[in-house]
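Reply to thread "Modeling small-molecule complexes from scratch"

Following up on the discussion above, here's a worked example others can learn from. I took a protein sequence and the SMILES for adenosine-5'-triphosphate and predicted the complex. Inputs first:
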Amino acid sequence: GEKYREMSVAEFFAKNKELAGFSNPTRALYQAVRELVENSLDATDAKGILPWIHISIAPVPEPSQGDGSRPRYVISVEDNGVGVPVTSMAMAFGKVLFSSKYVIRQTRGMYGLGVKAAVLYGQMTAGTPVEVFSATKGSQYVHMMRLMIDVQRNEPRILEKGEWNKRGSWHGTKVTLTLEGDWSRARSKILEYVKRTAVIAPYAEIVLETPDGEILYFPRTTRRMPKPPKEAKPHPHGVDIEQLKSIIRSTRAKTLKDLLVTEFQSIGEKTAVDFLERYGIDPKLKPRELLRKGRERLLRRLVDALMEYPFRSPKSDYLSPIGSDIIEIGLRRMFAPEWVGAVTRSPKAHRGHPFIVEVGIAYGGSIESRDEPLLLRYANKIPLLYEEREDVSYKVVSSINWKQYNIDFPAPLVVLVHIASTKVPYKGVGKESVSDVPEIESEIRNAVQEIARKLRIYLSRKAREQEAIKR
Amino acid sequence: GEKYREMSVAEFFAKNKELAGFSNPTRALYQAVRELVENSLDATDAKGILPWIHISIAPVPEPSQGDGSRPRYVISVEDNGVGVPVTSMAMAFGKVLFSSKYVIRQTRGMYGLGVKAAVLYGQMTAGTPVEVFSATKGSQYVHMMRLMIDVQRNEPRILEKGEWNKRGSWHGTKVTLTLEGDWSRARSKILEYVKRTAVIAPYAEIVLETPDGEILYFPRTTRRMPKPPKEAKPHPHGVDIEQLKSIIRSTRAKTLKDLLVTEFQSIGEKTAVDFLERYGIDPKLKPRELLRKGRERLLRRLVDALMEYPFRSPKSDYLSPIGSDIIEIGLRRMFAPEWVGAVTRSPKAHRGHPFIVEVGIAYGGSIESRDEPLLLRYANKIPLLYEEREDVSYKVVSSINWKQYNIDFPAPLVVLVHIASTKVPYKGVGKESVSDVPEIESEIRNAVQEIARKLRIYLSRKAREQEAIKR
Ligand SMILES: Nc1ncnc2c1ncn2[C@@H]1O[C@H](COP(=O)(O)OP(=O)(O)OP(=O)(O)O)[C@@H](O)[C@H]1O
Ligand SMILES: Nc1ncnc2c1ncn2[C@@H]1O[C@H](COP(=O)(O)OP(=O)(O)OP(=O)(O)O)[C@@H](O)[C@H]1O
Ligand SMILES: [Mg+2]
Ligand SMILES: [Mg+2]
């Protein structure tokens, strides 16, 4: 007969590790570094701390046995971030779908899976525990744990733990794990990832030590940092029936009108009253009424109404763009171009989630001529290096008629696109490309065209000057 | 402070429904139909039953209120398959990561998520339960359940259930759910999906009733069906440290040699002895010894050795290709071409998983001329319609130098690629494109070239004949 069984979410992502980006030793080494670095940046710049991040990738000396043992590496990432409280430490690193980022706010992390996927891959290919040291700002202790994930139960299994008195005010986290990798193939991608991270975070100090013994140092070049994003309440345009039921079950509001005002963003007292009147729904309705049998049609009508009524757009306090000045400086540093332009667009929304598109274009100078624009994609400040051709930015940039901007390929053109949102619609949990949500796609197009028009002005002026010189 | 919390896997796929393919009402309608149809085909042709599948998509009559209520549809899929035992019914439809397909065998389903993702999307956009009728072959009853998923707990919540005495020997399943959709946008994709399913399954009888009142009927044109695939034991080339530990914990084998022979495929007595000798490991070792503290290096060495030793390739009994004859007939039926060729390659393996690549090429006749080949992708008999540009088949077919096969674009060329495996390395749980695993990529290339060479012979002969006619 059929073998029916359930599977823990840890076993699911162990068996299907390619879904999380751990498809082979090359990608796995890259993905593990990413997940740790993105956690360190979330613990620093999203918390108002000037980041100091030290990345070390070292080969594991395998006793030379000629038994085909596969190359393994010890990855260690240390930061000066807010740290992990000891009460959450085991779960944060040992339980898949455990996170502090399940809130509505722009962060790099969002799934509660990243570091656990790396820990799982390490367990599968090296059999060793992850080691975490951490101290929070307020605490007087540094805590340490070595743990593995009990895959069948999706629970942390602590092998060792320690506690020391903290000297001074150090706070931060250091994560170390061992896994099978392929540095020779992963090297260029990992270097590119770290460089592209540093170039848009000039307020961060980053050190990368490689298995070849190289040390790459990205110094802090400014102390000015974008404001950390705030946490938002849900926006009515993004609500669904399940989410509304969940809000109703946990709310303290005594009436439907109060629920709308207190549980959502963009709904003030006046708006709530007007909204409920327009759809003929009683403002004094007790929220729990909506959960009763027979009330399904009213609940559905309310959700449809919340999605349709023109509530004001979500605020951008929950976002943290890179900044057009930083994008321009970064492009100049990377490419020594003859021309650079960048824009940070005003906030828009997709399904109740605010987003900001930023575009930078660099032209000429030391940029190599290519058959198509060199596209640098970013989402929530994360550089995206794989899966380009199904990404919304690639779709837009490759569909632009560059001829109308005086660009004939091959040409020396770089386009940087950044999408910042409280929810980036990635195509997969490995966060390599972004889905083509219509609102985001049209905003990227507008932003690219805005800067391309400025480039055209420069190019036609340059052409006229060269004409003049010839005569 | 930080809000640390865990999330059930049901909540995870509700919040991130785009990961499962439910990104908007158009894709959601398509994905829901797919998930139900693929479950019905797994319950029939993978079980030696000639499939009868009835798909109905009907609009939900919303009372015309002008309150912007969004279009909803009732999707119903019925089959004559093996049915779902009542003891597993609630979990099969109400618990994310519950499946009968967590075994090593070629099936369309593999994640234990598909129908639950559709149920969740229905709950979020229509608030109604899924309804399931089912009867298994041996049972004297038909069982019915209406249930919803308790998202926070990832448990089924049965709202209603019933049991009737079965008259006759009916067996099968009928699944009905309601969700928000967009038939006008989804129509062409859903029709294409069903047609492309029918064309490679001529032994299946499929009826599709659409919201427009159309009835599409795909009659059975043969009673000959491929043998259902068998279940495999793991192959040593695909093992990792976690999996080996799990095997050790559950095995009844008293010695390591017996464990290798009984728990793996492709390891006979003689091979096991030779393997353990070569790596200097004691065949009489008690398996549980390997789990003890201090034995990690031996365990790692054993896993590395299992991945390196040239055990014979996995058998193909666990696979079920379409068949080159069916592919040719299908391409003729779809395109009325002037030439068709197809091949079913011999089995290969990726990471211990057997796979078979099949390719069909059709040329000329009624095929429209296009700037690039029209690519029809399939994986485990599922038509893949989205995410083409990051798919391994697209990568291969678009990189072929078609000029050397006498093809100049625009040209009337169709290429069908089918990848059948005990584990298809999809890029996402929505099963729309396949990762470019090197073994699979090179096998697709070999298969396409094999058939392209035959096409070239035809085209050059045709060119010579036309030359002769001119003189
Ligand atoms: N370096 C760190 N400093 C502080 N907290 C950390 C650090 N690394 C991990 N954490 C904590 O552990 C949690 C789990 O991390 P994990 O990477 O698994 O998920 P995530 O970052 O929330 O989401 P994602 O899966 O998208 O990365 C984080 O939410 C954070 O609270
Ligand atoms: N029509 C059906 N007939 C028989 N069994 C079914 C049917 N539909 C679903 N099932 C059972 O329910 C289980 C869960 O289905 P579900 O689609 O969620 O997962 P899956 O098919 O195993 O994997 P995937 O997520 O890849 O689709 C199946 O494994 C199967 O045992
Ligand atoms: Mg993370
Ligand atoms: Mg399924």
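What I'd highlight from this example: Residues 21 and 27 of chain A are 7 Å apart (CA to CA). Residues A 2; B 35, 39-40, 43, 79, 81-84, 92, 99-101, 109-116, 173 surround adenosine-5'-triphosphate (ligand 2) (CB under 6 Å). Questions welcome below.
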